Each structure stands twice: as structure tokens, then as C-alpha cells.
Amino acid sequence: MIQLTELKTLMLAQSTHIDRHPHLSAASGLVQVGPWLYVIADDELHLGQFLLEGNEHGQLHRFFAGDLPFEHEERKAEKPDIEVLTLIPGVANPKQSVLLALGSGSKKTRRRGAVVSLDHTGNISGQAEMIDLSNFYDFLKQEIGKLNIEGAAVVQNQFFLFQRGNKKNKLNASIRLSLDDLYKTLLAPEKNYQPHIHITPYDLGYIDNVPLCFTDATTLRNGDIVFTASAENTSDSYLDGQCMGSAIGVINRGGDLVLLEPIDKTVKLEGIEADEEGNNIELLLVTDADDAAHPAQLYSASVKYPG
Whose CB among 39, 99, 150, 237 lies 3.0–4.6 Å from 106's, allowing a Cys bridge? Predict the structure, then answer.
């Protein structure tokens, strides 16, 4: 069992609404760049930026225009449901890093994405650009059925998306396409472009008869993918359910599941960063409490490398 160590609560210098708490609650993706942690939340229109060290409150960067309703059910219906945050090389300049955020695709209103460039220090440079990815998500839906995209990872010139299942739709799968095809999709989203994709299903087991399903992913330097999975007691990609527990796993470069271990706390892990240190994988993780009144937490953990 993997032991989690709590590092901090994701508090904000300013809330997104006068009546909302000054914290991120539904953290759904995590990227570390130098001293910075970038955290996306599935019930916000902003990206959170935090320092890894210290307890300074985080800052918000707008990713999507407009405002969301305050009431939970109305907000849930209108939110972009951004579940993916990952770092990709810039299209024009591969040496420049770009943050890519993607919606889950579980509803037609959840098919937006956004990109924003980072400067040489890892700080956000300029304004985020919103992208309507409806055509791309329509294509994915034709290939795999009901969508719930929850994570992404870049491995050399390949881009992996991770489909999350549930009790009714048990398909957990990686969806692989080339990085070039991803760029074509992002640069011309209005075109009905249908890239070649490769789908690999995974059986991640159960916690208390509830299936473990992908919630995020990231890449190690050697090309292996580290992911989080949670067992959420729901049969619908839209409706939340009780979290029965979470696990952390590794998929090697051949696509094989080589590690899957539960964690020691009953929390829903929704974001992961990972790095190799000797024989260990050092992890940073963020949680989603599914309750706007409860802030997301940042944890660390260490896993013995299975290779």
C-alpha cells in the first residue's frame, strides 16, 4: 500500500466568486514546471498556479471566458469540465513548453480545450487560447462510445489520452495518436480531421466491487506512464458517486500494466506528477473532494520502481 504525505491545502489568494471559498476544490489535473505547480479544477474557468515550496496562496489565470453559476447543479451543467492538464512541446518552437487543458467530452458543453505558453522560467506567458474540439470529440465518440477523457501523457512523438470508465461503462483505455496529429487537430479544430488512433483497454480491478478507473496520467523520462485511478461508485460519467479509494499504477513502454497499488487514504486522486530518483518514483498528487466547501489537497508519495 502506498503511503500519502500531505503537503498543503490548495488555497487561493482570491476566489473566483464573492460567495465561493478561496480555494480550489475539484482539482483534476497537475503539472509541475520548475518551482511551479499548475492545477486545473473541473468546476472552474481558471487555472491555479502555486509554488511547490512554502504556503503562499495560489494565483488564478483565466482559461475560459464568461462566468459559471454559483449553485452546484447549475454550475455542474454549464462547466467545461476540464479534466486534463499536460505539458506539450510548442508547435512552432518545440523547445517552448505549452500547457494543454482538455475537457472530458462527457457532454457537448465539455468539448473545449485551451493552450497557453510558458516562458523560460516556467511562468505563464500571454493569454490562454480557447479551442472548440467538438469535431475531434465526435470522432473519438464514434470510435469508443461514451466519452470521459481524464488524463493525457506525451511519450516522445506519441500522445496518449486516457478514457475513464464507470460501473456501467467499464471501458478504461488509452487512446494513442501521433503528436503531429494532435497538432493538426489543435491548429485546425474546425476541420473534420480523423487521425489514426490505437485503443488499448485496461482492467484495473475493483475496490469494494467498484471498478478502478483512470483519473490522470504523466510520463517518466524513460517513457513509462504513471497514472492514478479511483473507484467511484457511479454508473454515469456525469453523476458523481462515493469514492471507495484510489490507486497508482505504471504502464511500461510496451503498453503493459506493470504496477498497480492502492493508497492508504480514501481520497479521489485526480492529478499526478512523477519523477525518477534512483529506484523510486517520486510523486505529487492532488485530490478532488466533490464538495466546493472542501479544498483540494496536495500530497507526495514514493513508489518503488517496478522495472
Answer: 237
* 3-class SS letters over 132-198: ECHHHHHHHHHHHCCCCEEEEEEECCEEEEEECCCCCCCCCEEEEEEHHHHHHHHHCCCCCCCCCCE
- Rounded CA-CA distance 29/45 in Å is 14
Q: Could you tell me if 220 and 307 are in contact, meaning their C-beta atoms sit under 8 angstroms apart?
A: no
Tally of CB atoms within 10 A around 112: 21
Q: Which amino acid belongs to residue 23?
A: H
CATH number reported for the structural domain that contains residue 222 in this entry: 2.120.10
Which residues, at least 6 apart from 274, have a Cβ–Cβ distance to it below 8 Å? 218, 219, 220, 226, 281, 282, 283, 284
Total domains present in the chain: 1
Per DSSP, 126 falls in state E
In whole angstroms, give the CA distance from residue 220 to residue 226: 7
pTM: 0.94
Host domain of residue 152: 5-304
Q: Which amino acid is at 64?
A: F
* pLDDT digits 0-9 by tens, 80-95: 999 999 999 987 777 7
Q: Is residue 237's pLDDT more than 70?
A: no
Query: Which DSSP symbol is given to 24?
Result: -
Contacts of 92 (CB under 8 A, 6+ apart): none
Q: Rounded to an integer, what distance in angstroms lies between the CA atom of residue 285 and that of residue 296?
A: 10
